């Protein structure tokens, strides 16, 4: 398993990797510098970053295909320039308070944390094409981060992962499977280090078979109502990483 504690002195002890899903998104607006700083302060092993590409081919941190849910704007990020997106704010409500903060360019995240964090970066196709991979590699090289100590690549797209592996074969790669789209035979033969599975598709037998093939299993969750209970269940099966929306809770489960 990738020993994040060895390269990140702030990482908690233990073998299970704690991946801050969109930053500490239970405490602040997802995919913002503040959310990532809170995740860093909470000693997450990795900061999970979803990438989108703007009209002028810049990379930003954003999960959805549109700006509608998490920002004051609307439409696809590919329809706006980075400068236009920087005029918008992310927006979220916690308790009785509404919080706003700018959508960060990916480069801003790298400038903020440099080599102090491990970046768990999700790539995706842009209009069906693998367009974001080369500028991503260029940025990581510019900030001296193209190293397995600092970066993991993940994607639902084999095409994107294959392109990333062509640029940087030494970097750990994770193939993600959507909910109820997991295919064990496909996962076993996939040329990747890690398989990313939605928790409801995780069984002990699946974990054992993937481990026998030398692959790690990282689990993500799509149901907020059951996520915390599901974390406890999949940890019992010996999974290697958790994409968590509550870092402190995950740490407590590990310590039990």
From TrEMBL:
Positions of the GP-PDE domain: 16-254
PROSITE patterns: GP_PDE
GO molecular function: phosphoric diester hydrolase activity
GO aspect biological process, one term: lipid metabolic process
Xref: InterPro entries: GP_PDE_dom, PLC-like_Pdiesterase_TIM-brl
PANTHER family: GLYCEROPHOSPHODIESTER PHOSPHODIESTERASE, GLYCEROPHOSPHORYL DIESTER PHOSPHODIESTERASE
Protein name listed in UniProt: Glycerophosphoryl diester phosphodiesterase
Species: Oceanobacillus sojae
């Amino acid at each position: 398993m990738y020993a994040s504690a060895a390269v990140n002195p702030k990482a908690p002890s233990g073998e299970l990797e704690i991946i801050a899903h969109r930053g500490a998104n239970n405490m602040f607006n997802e995919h913002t510098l503040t959310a990532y700083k809170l995740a860093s302060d909470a000693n997450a092993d990795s900061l999970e970053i979803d990438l989108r590409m703007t009209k002028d081919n810049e990379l930003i941190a954003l999960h959805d295909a549109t700006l509608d849910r998490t920002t004051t704007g609307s439409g696809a990020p590919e329809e706006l320039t980075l400068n236009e997106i920087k005029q918008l704010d992310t927006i979220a409500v916690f308790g009785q308070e509404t919080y706003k903060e700018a959508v960060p360019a990916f480069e801003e995240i790298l400038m903020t944390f440099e080599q102090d964090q491990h970046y768990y970066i999700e790539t995706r196709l842009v209009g069906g094409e693998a367009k974001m991979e080369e500028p991503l590699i260029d940025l990581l090289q510019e900030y001296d981060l193209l190293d397995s100590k600092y970066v993991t690549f993940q994607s639902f797209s084999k095409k994107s992962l294959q392109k990333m592996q062509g640029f940087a074969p030494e970097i750990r790669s994770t193939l993600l499977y959507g909910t109820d789209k997991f295919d064990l035979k496909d996962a076993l033969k996939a040329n990747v280090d890690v398989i990313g599975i939605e928790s409801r598709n995780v069984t002990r037998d699946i974990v054992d078979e993937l481990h026998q093939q030398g692959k790690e299993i990282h689990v993500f969750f799509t149901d907020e109502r059951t996520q915390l209970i599901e974390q406890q269940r999949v940890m019992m099966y010996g999974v290697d990483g958790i994409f968590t929306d509550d870092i402190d809770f995950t740490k407590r489960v590990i310590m039990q």
